[in-house]
Backbone:
């Protein structure tokens, strides 16, 4: 899979991780809030994440 150089990703368990490099293979991602207000990175999630079938 070819990675998108505009989206870096180190979550190799994600279906969209470019196996050869730490990039996402999607054209765009969706980032959402965990709570109703976000003041730090821990309050957000990549909502485009889908676990690879081979991760487990």
Residues:
């Amino acid at each position: 899979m070819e990675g998108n150089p505009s989206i870096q990703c180190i979550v190799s368990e994600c279906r969209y991780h470019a196996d050869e490099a730490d990039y996402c293979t999607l054209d765009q991602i969706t980032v959402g809030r965990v709570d109703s207000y976000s003041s730090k990175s821990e309050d957000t999630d990549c909502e485009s994440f889908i676990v690879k079938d081979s991760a487990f």
